[in-house]
Design brief:
The protein is an alpha+beta fold. It folds into three domains: about 70 residues, Phosphorylase Kinase, domain 1, CATH 3.30.200.20; about 100 residues, Transferase(Phosphotransferase), domain 1 (Orthogonal Bundle); about 25 residues. The strands form three sheets. A six-stranded antiparallel β-sheet has the order 1-2-3-4-6-5, with helices on one face. Helix 2 runs antiparallel to helix 3. The N terminus is likely disordered.
Length: about 210
């Protein structure tokens, strides 16, 4: 089984599996995957990001290998990584998360960051290592000193810690737990600020 978002897989009569959403149509074939991007808002950006990330990560173990791509229609052909998604894997050995840490760092070495790291995009492979799929929300950078890249790299590592906290919190160091605690507190304060700001605007509107 291979991960494709969080939709249920449908098996066709010819044995192929597919999943369709408002954004993508993914066809799982023997050893390869065809991912088509449905034309719509930001579809070109998502296609471009996925293609650029796969090109940069070519040859990296645990990431699909780019086979070919077409711009009209927007479609990416890639190798299929066998495994089960983390959100459906149940109890997972700690070695999988150690492997995921290494994979994320190697991904960053190739100047590819991820805005999010949901469990549905993480594969637990048959050999016990981790895999990553779905790079349409990634960011690629050409310059290591770019402020945007530095921020993207920090977001990627934070998302990794959040994922580990949700599935294997005992694997976090005290420093990592403290970092997450501070980030959670800052997010809560920011949300409170937004809520208070909305209430204040509504009150002013009602007065006027």
């Amino acid at each position: 089984m291979s991960a494709v978002a969080d939709k249920a897989l449908v098996t066709r009569k010819d044995g192929a599996q597919e999943v369709t959403s408002v954004k993508n149509h993914v066809l799982l074939l023997d050893g390869r995957v065809m991912k088509s991007f449905v034309a719509g808002r930001r579809s070109k950006n998502r296609f471009r990001r996925e293609l650029e990330a796969l090109r940069r990560l070519q040859g990296l173990e645990g990431v699909p290998e780019l086979l070919r791509a077409s711009h009209s229609p927007m479609c990416v052909h890639m190798s299929r990584i066998e495994g089960i998604t983390l959100d459906r894997a149940g109890s997972v050995p700690g070695a999988v998360f150690h492997s995921l840490r290494e994979l994320v760092e190697r991904m960053l070495d190739h100047r590819v960051a991820r805005h999010s790291l949901p469990a549905r995009d993480v594969l637990v492979r048959p050999d016990g290592s981790a895999g990553l799929v779905d790079f349409e929300r990634s960011r690629s950078c050409h310059f290591s000193w770019s402020p945007i890249w530095l921020a993207s790299r920090a977001v990627t590592r934070f998302q990794l810690l959040r994922l580990i906290e949700a599935h294997a919190p005992h694997l976090l160091s005290q420093r990592e737990s403290a970092t997450l605690g501070m980030q959670h507190w800052l997010r809560a304060v920011y949300r409170l600020h937004l809520n208070l700001r909305k209430r204040y605007k509504r009150r002013l509107k009602s007065i006027n």
